[in-house]
Amino acid sequence: MKAYDRLFIGGEWVTPAGTGTIDVINPTTEEVVGRVPDSTTADVDKAVALARDAFDNGPWPRMTPVERAEILTKVSQAIQADMQGFAELITMEMGSPVAWGTMAQVFAPTMILDYYAGLASTFQFDEVRQGLMGEVLVAKEPVGVVGAISPWNVPMFIAAAKLAPALVAGCTVVFKPAPETPLDAFRLAEVFESVGLPKGVLSVLPAGREVGEHLVRHPGVNKVSFTGSTVAGKKIGGICGEQLKRFSLELGGKSAAVLLDDVNLAEALPMLLPNALMNNGEACIAQTRILAPRDRYQEVVDALVESVSAMKVGDPLDPTVEVGPLVAERQRDRVEGYIKLGQEEGAKVALGGGRPAGMDKGWFVEPTVFVNVDNSMRIAQEEIFGPVLAVIPYDGDAEAMSIANDSSYGLCGSVWTNDPERGLKMARGVRTGTYMLNSPIPIDFSTPFGGYKDSGMGREFGPDGLELFLEKKSINLPAGFSPSV
Q1: Which of 74, 418, 436, 484: disulfide with 195, CB 3.0–4.6 Å?
Q2: Dihedral angle of Cα 241, 149, 141, 115, to the nearest 10 degrees
Q3: 345 three-state secondary structure
Q4: Residues 6 or more apart from 438 whose CB is under 8 A from it?
């Protein structure tokens, strides 16, 4: 068991203000595998004060972007030196299959760190523009103290998505990881400490919602970057709006994978299914609505059932396992509740629907395929966050597009066809922030990622992700003066 008795505040391990602790429970064994202090509002106050001082008076915002990027490169290298250790740690925290997690939970964060380390040397932080009445220097400056809040499903990936651009920008950060996954966050803090991050720049405070809300409301925080549920995101957006505080939100999804009537299922399904059931279905970009042409509906269902039934369920530390347990008992209860609801709504379970045989311990749910689903059903409209797929029939491309758009979410989606031009028309017509056209890659770290509608505000990754942590200042210049930029 990994136990911490201190918090990482302002770059140092300090005694917490309170005495509460958080137990980390392995969702496979249901045993406690870690314990960390439960942060309090007093800890947040201390962390924000140190971050404020480090931003206002410390060296970090005054270093060059390239100098700040060197820290990210060292962090990436340290993580890559212990990829398996990080992957197994995250698997024990939240149940992600280690074979998938080694790439998505660990290597992908290093790709994000490396991307922003490289962008630091090419991004235009200062730009001279020709204005209507003379030259203007447009300077992009760090927004200030950032409150970053992440969920438990891909904890280090989302930490990197927030920390990398914020730190390259020159911000200081108070980071609140989810209480389910504090161990990898503390391990990441140890790495930042080891590579020489200046004092005050980063704090890591695992805690629940009350402390998270205190961080959001804190007057010393200039910007909030949140990833999590739409319900929580709306509340955070409201608080920040009242305070005119900068914020960005990456929220839920209910993405539709559109199989056009010319699709080659043998080619499409091996690329689609890893994105439909990734991370045990606990992924905001999961393609959980499968839209099938009515005249090929049974063929699609049969192929899906055959493919999903072949997926191995079990101990996520086993490198051959594709589906592990859900993060917590409450999450299993939630998913099982939706499976029951789907049947009550009139949908039929074609595969799964229960708990895997012989697995008496662990919060497992069988990969489940629903058929005869109408898009108005709650299992088609609400984010289940588990290994549950809904196969929805449609007639014609126009209806497929309409069904895909009939959602309060708009985060991701895909289309599968032998005609890329036809697929591109579908991709352009679906109101969602990220889309795959015959592609297994949902996110490219050099391009913007985020959602329409209830899936959030703002775009992470690429230069757009760096812009989230910058303010723009226009400086009108005197005639004849050319600043160095």
Answers
A1: 74
A2: -140
A3: helix
A4: 268, 271, 415, 416, 417, 420, 423
Question: Catalytic annotation on 250?
Answer: yes
Domain positions in the chain are 2-251+455-475, 256-437
CATH topology of domain 2-251+455-475: Aldehyde Dehydrogenase; Chain A, domain 1 (3.40.605)
Domain 256-437 has CATH 3.40.309.10: yes
pLDDT in tens, 290-349: 999 999 999 999 999 999 999 999 999 999 999 999 999 999 999 999 999 999 999 999
| CB 125, CB 140: distance < 8 Å | yes
d(CA 327, CA 93): 8
Q: What is the DSSP letter of 318?
A: S
User: What whole-number distance in Å separates Cα of residue 288 and Cα of residue 189?
Assistant: 34
Q: What 3-state class would DSSP assign to 107?
A: helix
Closest CA relative to residue 185, chosen from 144, 151, 236, 223: 151
Burial class for 362, CB neighbours closer than 10 Å (0-12, 13-18, 19+): buried
Catalytic residue among 284, 322, 412, 460: 284
Active-site hit among 93, 250, 383, 467: 250
pLDDT in tens, 69-127: 999 999 999 999 999 999 999 999 999 999 999 999 999 999 999 999 999 999 999 99
Q: Decide: 451 and 229 in contact? Cβ < 8 Å.
A: no
Reduced to 3 states (helix: H, G, I; strand: E, B; else coil), residue 104 is helix
377 near 335, Cβ under 8 Å? no
CB 214 within 8 A of CB 41: yes
